[in-house]
Amino acid sequence: MKKLILFFLLLIGYHGAQAQDSSQVVTLEQIIAQAQNNSLTFRQAETNRETSYWQWRTYLADYKPTLSLAGTLPDFSRSINPVTQPDGTTDFKQVSLNNSQLNLGVTQSIGLTGGQIFVNSQLQRFDDFNAGATRYNSNPALIGFSQPLFRFNKLGWARKIEPLRYAESQKKFVEDREAIAQDVTKLYFDLLLQQVNQSIATKNRTNTEDIIRIAEEKFKLGKISKNDVLQLRLSLLNSQIAQAEADLAVKNATLALNSYLGEPATKPILLTVPGELPLLQVTENQALEQARQNRKESLAFKRALLQAERNLAEARQSNGFNATMFATFGLTNQANTLMASYGNPENQQQVRIGFELPIMDGGKQKSLRKTAQANLKLTQYAVEQDQLEFEQNIRTQVNQFEMLKTRVAITAEADQIAQSRYDIAKATYVIGRISITDLNIALGEKDQAKRAYISSLRDFWTAFYNLRTFTLYDFEKNIPLTPEP
User: Fold this and answer.
1) How many CA atoms lie within 13 A of 106 on its CB side?
2) Please, what sign has the CA dihedral across residues 286, 288, 294, 299?
3) Residues 80 and 205: beta-carbon distance below 8 Å
4) Are the beta carbons of 164 and 302 closer than 8 angstroms?
5) Which residues contact 405 (CB under 8 A, 6 or more apart)?
């Protein structure tokens, strides 16, 4: 029976070792790199950047010439229409007509003035099937422009705002990647803490089993009481429960991390405790300077003010006096044949100025203007408040980062001291110089110190990547994380 039990124990140990070996041993840097390049969150950020890029290309297209071909081929009709006769009477005649046309045009918008320049070439063909007649009307070249006067220039304001919006999207992509580092760092340490708890529970159970064997021998010799043995057995049961809970917590934390990384849910991961901390000193002024240069907020503040000014300009210019000047100059001719219609063309000119002047609008124009002015003031106040909060967050993050570096050093030393104290307490208990209560106290302090050290590492690395996100600056390499403009 003893041999059979030993066989099963060896078999369980073998499979446990296999599971441990199959686990992928990774570091924090590797997990962050994987998340920043392959996770679903990264793909979303990349798609947002691509969307912003094509929105930018759409804006640029508004300032480039467009070539278009329009026409009606054919426009045939057969009907009975009233026709006025030479004597003034009306007679109904059958009419069979076709009127086809083609127009090839190039249009160029003028961002500075909001107008348009265009060049057209047009051809018309008219067929009267009853009379057997065909006529052509050609406009080989027609040059013209259309210019709004005293009206809101949408293109001019877009030239000021859209470059800022696109630059924001580029910086936001970098911020999104750094935010991924923040999120995955939290998940990393969630799993690491549970793996540490699992390791603690396993070691505690093994140590308790060893101590129980020693205690039972001492009990036989009458050196300890039955109460001490029972207390140790109770500790063993508690350690078994703690190990079962730790195993479940490791599975759940592994599932959360794998889900974020886009990996199979059950893929085992063995994490390493980050070693040395980055050696860097960050001052408030340095962080503020980099944040102002690199973060999208600086652009967003400027864009918000420009948009409010744009809305005010639109309210002023779209509801008052406005006019449009339209002028064309070109060549035209008509003939019975296609080639003849392009011979000896005549001049064609057109000039038109239309205007609109509201005389009474019930105070609508004034209300719109005052609303836009109030919104501009509100935006100015909001931007000022956001700037103050932005700077305050940077200062808070720098101070917290410096504090957490000190905390990691203290908890690391406390972890070593607590481990050494427990080792001494365990050896002292074996020789019978301390009670089981003192041993349990040392055990609890050891476990608490280890967890406190891992928690302080979590807080430090989270703050480290928070600081990178807040400033978009790599303080280790002293380079910005944003691409060069």
Assistant:
1) 6
2) negative
3) no
4) yes
5) 277, 460
Q: Give pLDDT tens digits for 206-260.
A: 888 888 887 787 777 777 778 877 887 888 888 889 889 989 999 999 999 999 9
Distance CA 33, CA 37 (A): 6
Q: Which domains can be identified in the chain, with CATH numbers? A: 25-63+152-320+363-480 (1.20.1600.10), 66-110+115-150+322-357 (no CATH)
Residue owning tokens 């078999």: 11
d(CA 98, CA 128): 7
| DSSP per-residue letters across 377-430 | HHHHHHHHHHHHHHHHHHHHHHHHHHHHHHHHHHHHHHHHHHHHHHHHHHHHHH
The DSSP bridge partners found for residue 349 are 329
Confirm if 397 and 466 have CB atoms less than 8 A apart. yes
Q: For residue 42, give both structure tokens.
A: 């990264």
Which residues are CB-neighbours of 230 under 8 A, at least 6 positions away? none
Could you tell me which residues are beta bridge partners of residue 118?
Answer: 107, 144
Mean pLDDT by 10 residues, the chain (485 residues): 34 38 77 92 94 94 92 88 84 87 93 90 90 88 89 90 93 93 94 92 85 79 78 84 90 93 85 86 90 90 93 84 87 84 82 79 82 92 92 91 90 93 86 80 90 93 92 90 66
How do residues 137-171 score in pLDDT, each as one tens digit? 988 889 999 998 888 889 899 999 999 999 999 99
Q: Which residue(s) pair with 335 in the sheet?
A: 136
Contact 127, 313 (CB under 8 A): no
Structure tokens at 317: 């210019």
> What whole-number distance in Å separates Cα of residue 97 and Cα of residue 207?
105
* Contact by Cβ (8 Å): 446, 424: no
User: Nearest 5 degrees, angle CA 170-CA 171-CA 172?
Assistant: 90
pLDDT recorded at residue 2: 34
Q: What is the dihedral of CA 386, 390, 391, 395, to 10 degrees?
A: 150
Distance CA 395, CA 176 (A): 21
**CA 185/CA 128 separation, integer angstroms:** 80
**What pTM did the predictor assign?**
0.77
The total number of residues written for the chain in this structure: 485
Q: Is the dihedral of CA 150, 152, 157, 162 positive or negative?
A: negative
Residues 348, 142: contact at Cβ < 8 Å?
yes
Tell me whether residue 166 is exposed, middle or buried, using C-beta atoms within 10 angstroms of its C-beta: 0 to 12, 13 to 18, 19 or more: middle
Question: Residue 472: is it exposed, middle or buried by C-beta count within 10 angstroms (0-12/13-18/19+)?
Answer: buried
